[in-house]
Specification:
The complex is a heterodimer of chains A (302) and B (543). Chain A is built from nine helices and 16 strands. Chain A has 302 residues and is of the alpha/beta class. In chain B, the strands form four sheets. In chain B, strands 1, 2, 3, 4, 5, 21, 22 and 23 form an eight-stranded mixed beta sheet that branches. The chains are: A alpha/beta (302), B alpha/beta (543). The interface between A and B is large, with 35 and 40 residues.
Chain lengths: 302, 543
């Protein structure tokens, strides 16, 4: 029996009250065909409509859409091991970090484990109280660290407080793309990947404008890149690009499977596919697919 | 008529001020019937005399207020530490003080493994005591290039692996993960730092210390570890306690040949307060004499030597940034209020003084909101609590369990690198705690340091570091005070002082059997008083 494909891991971080639970409820209700496994701290806060609920045991909620929600319990690593041992293996894993967790530590676990694939730290920032929390001598440094470690930042409660101050606090600590929102209801397509090593349907579509929040970019064709050019592109991606995934044919033969989330990239040698196929997602207004067109063209001709 | 046994001893140190010493103790139904001379049980119809301990000294069974069940589990693997240690079978594992000795020990262990593929895993290694080259994968490749070889370091935060083990987790020079250490040429050294980097390997080797707390072998080894050092009651001070573990422990501790009363504390980390409270109250109902459930352990900060404790000004002497909160102070406050309100006793891990202060503030607030006088909440470790904080704790009735063993094992490191000379001299301030009227006990945190209450008492009495200097002589306590701390002192923090901790009529017949009188030996020899075994509920367990 072959090993199942690596499990994509997304970490949701943020201080108390920033909206982590709201985001997780949203993901579970709008899984879009993904079988998501979610590990949460506060099991009692998960609100699932009765018609979506298949069974509720002491520490496990099973949903009729294939998603499962478990209590994280005392030990992250054992919870990760249990997640990996689940059969069938879920399509993706979402971990709700505690209010003072160091999300990069969880990220490191996903990077170290060959059976996992790192899929980003999403940090939620509460527009109302981020200033006072960052100024708190007890917890300010740990909350700042959550912002610094983020691959994607979501400012919540922007209807209750002007987000300008929050954006300023974020700007001095992070270059990650920022979504300004009222509630933490981020589209699952932005932050979740799928475990299958096929690309999502968007790879075969043209670019899309998904309301105001994010835009996608894709390429499918005969282009070949040098490994160096691909590395340069991924190490210095265009502004606002959040995730990129693809199979890339290399100059002189061979191919790699490429993953980029935030500033973290992995390249893995694979057998040559029929064509190069790449899909990317970026956060507006910073992300402009035309920038990636230009960078891609430059990379193919270098 | 129920059987009565009358044990004779050279001396019985009772810890009961009504009768500080005696020569005989009568036991019936697992409890102490009478204490005194050969005729002490005459009023009760006498009994059968047992003179086995006629040359020994009996004390109340020692009480370890802060240890972990894992102390037993580790002995499934060979020990590779610097200091001598006894395993639960009583075998002495000599300390390994050079890399050559460590390698020789590994080769010997390797030769004893059944097949070519099974991994070699050893624990307890401490590189800071080895002045030579740092242990690396090449040393371990020389032990075996066929099987995975893993050396877990004593602090459990690091391990060193051979090339075969590294290949198992697909770590290469291209691996870009914090904690996968590389040398100046970018090659893997074999050292893996922190759980994120270690866990993929431990998982593949099937080393899972969680599943061990329900394992009969682990529970048995924990009992044996305790018995060898005279402990008849020990906490397991952070337990997940799923039903499976509770059932296994109820079964194991009810066996006629099990020598230890276990007091597991439910770990409350990220679960919401109401869930922790409900679980603790449900567990309390399942308590038996030998398994006492219902208390909760909270963890506020990290460790001082790991630079993860939360310190007040002026912070770390080497300039390291302040440590980390394991739960947010706001959440700790909420949890403490909820548990105090539900009348659940808490044992709260606070190493740094800022963490202790946050805990004291939260406890004070909870006590204003919910009157409950005899809570006996206990700060665990409390290594940097100062005199003013002790005064607040005394006013609030908060107890402390101090990590006296740190003075010996880490005192020099604390003075030089972590908190500096002044605060190192007053750390684990047993003297101040007692002087300010705080109920106090001392602990080993086994397996972090070896369980051994007489050693722990020796640390509190002498405050000698591993390099032999007295660190903070003003904080030393007397032998009598230290012996009280490891018996009634610890029993008080577990609300068991009415049942154990002294030898007096009505209490459980729990004794430590000693070859010498700890109140008579030179205080610097306190740690060397041999322990011959224990009596638990009247049952004799000789080592």
């Amino acid at each position: 029996m072959t090993d199942p494909a690596p499990l994509p891991v997304t970490v949701v971080s943020g201080y108390l009250g920033a909206g982590k639970t709201s985001l997780i409820n949203h993901l579970l209700r709008n899984a879009g065909g993904r079988r998501i496994l979610v590990l949460v701290n506060d099991f009692g806060e998960i609100n699932i409509d009765a018609d979506l609920l298949e069974s509720a045991e002491e520490d496990v909620l099973t949903l009729s859409n294939g998603c499962v929600c478990c209590s994280l319990g005392g030990d992250l690593y054992y919870a990760l091991a249990d997640a990996l041992d689940r059969r069938p293996r879920p399509d993706c894993l979402v971990i709700e970090a505690s209010g003072v967790a160091q999300p990069q530590k969880i990220a490191q676990a996903a990077l170290a484990e060959p059976e996992m694939r790192y899929c980003g730290v999403v940090t939620l920032v509460d527009a109302v109280n981020v200033g006072s929390v960052l100024a708190d001598p007890l917890i300010g440094a740990q909350v700042a660290d959550q912002i610094t470690s983020a691959d994607l930042i979501v400012v919540t409660k922007s209807d209750l407080a002007e987000p300008i101050a929050a954006l300023a606090e974020i700007d001095i600590r992070s270059g990650a793309p920022v979504i300004v929102a009222q509630r933490a209801e981020v589209a699952p397509d932005i932050i979740l990947d799928r475990r299958e090593s096929t690309l999502p349907a968007t790879a075969r579509e043209d670019r899309h404008d998904h309301g105001e929040v994010y835009r996608t970019w894709s390429y499918s064709g005969p282009d070949r890149l040098s490994r160096q050019a691909l590395e340069r592109l991924l190490d210095d991606p265009p502004k606002g690009l959040y995730r990129l995934k693809g199979f890339v044919l290399l100059n002189g033969g061979g191919a790699v499977e490429a993953h980029l989330v935030g500033r973290t990239r992995t390249l893995e040698n694979i057998t040559e596919p029929l064509a190069t196929q790449v899909v990317a997602i970026g956060i507006t207004p910073k992300f402009n697919p035309t920038d990636l067109d230009k960078r891609w063209y430059a990379a193919t001709s270098s | 008529m129920t059987e009565t046994m009358i044990f004779r001893a050279r001396k019985i140190v009772t810890m009961d001020p009504n009768q500080p010493t005696a020569t005989h103790v009568a036991v019936r139904e697992g409890r102490i019937l009478a204490v005194g001379d050969a005729d002490c049980a005459a009023q009760w119809g006498g009994g059968t005399h047992d003179d086995r301990f006629a040359d020994a000294v009996l004390m109340p069974g020692f009480v370890e207020g802060h240890a972990h069940m894992m102390a037993g589990a580790m002995w499934r693997f060979p020990y590779a530490g610097y200091h001598d240690r006894l395993d639960p079978t009583g075998r002495l594992w000599k300390g390994q003080t050079t890399i050559e000795q460590v390698i020789a020990g590994l080769k010997a262990a390797e030769a004893g493994l059944p097949d070519k593929d099974s991994p070699l895993f050893v624990w307890g290694f401490d590189p800071i005591f080895l002045p030579t080259e740092r242990l690396n994968r090449h040393h371990l490749d020389a032990v075996s290039s066929d099987r995975p070889v893993v050396v877990q370091h004593s602090n459990f935060h690091l391990l060193t692996a051979n090339s075969t083990a590294l290949a198992l987790v697909q770590y290469t020079r291209d691996t870009n993960v914090d904690g996968v250490a590389k040398d100046e040429n970018g090659e893997l050294t074999g050292e893996l730092q922190e759980m994120a980097a270690m866990f993929p390997l431990l998982r593949r080797l099937g080393i899972d210390f969680r599943s061990t707390s329900a394992h009969p072998d682990t529970i048995a080894a924990f009992g044996a570890t305790a018995r060898m050092v005279g402990v008849t009651t020990s906490t397991d001070l952070f337990a997940e306690l799923p039903d499976r573990d509770v059932e296994a422990q109820l079964k194991a501790t009810s066996a006629a040949d099990y020598p230890l009363r276990i007091v597991p504390m439910l770990g409350g980390i990220t679960q919401p307060p109401r869930e922790v409270a409900e679980r603790a109250l449900a567990l309390r109902k399942r308590s038996t004499d030998m398994l006492r459930l219902g208390g909760v352990k909270l963890v506020l900060d990290g460790s001082i030597q790991g630079y993860t404790a939360r310190l007040r000004w002026p912070g770390h002497v080497n300039g390291a940034p302040n440590g980390i909160w394991v739960i947010a102070p706001d959440q700790a406050e909420e949890m403490i209020e909820a548990l105090h309100g539900a009348r659940i006793q808490m044992h709260i891990h606070t190493n740094g003084d800022e963490a202790s202060e946050v805990a004291i503030d939260a406890l004070e607030r909870a006590m204003v909101l919910h009157p409950w006088r005899d809570h006996r909440h206990t700060l665990q470790h409390g290594q940097m609590i100062d005199r003013a904080m002790y005064r607040r704790m005394a006013a609030l009735g908060v107890c402390v369990n101090l990590f006296a063993n740190h003075i010996y094992y880490f005192g020099e490191i604390h003075a030089a690198k972590t908190i500096g000379e002044d605060r190192a001299r007053r750390m684990d301030a047993c003297r101040t705690a007692l002087d300010e009227g705080v109920r106090m006990t001392i602990h080993s945190d086994a397996p972090v340091t070896p369980m051994g209450p007489l050693f722990t008492a020796w640390c509190a009495v002498n405050r000698l570091t591993s390099s032999g200097r007295v660190l903070g002589p003003e904080q030393r306590i007397t032998v009598d005070e230290a012996l009280l701390a490891i018996t009634l002192g610890a029993a008080y923090t577990l609300k068991l002082d009415g049942e154990i901790g002294s030898i007096e009529t009505g209490k459980r017949a729990d004794f430590a059997i000693l070859a010498d009188d700890p109140t008579e030996v030179d205080p610097v020899a306190l740690k060397d008083v041999p322990v011959l075994g224990t009596v638990s509920g009247g049952r004799v367990f000789l080592s």
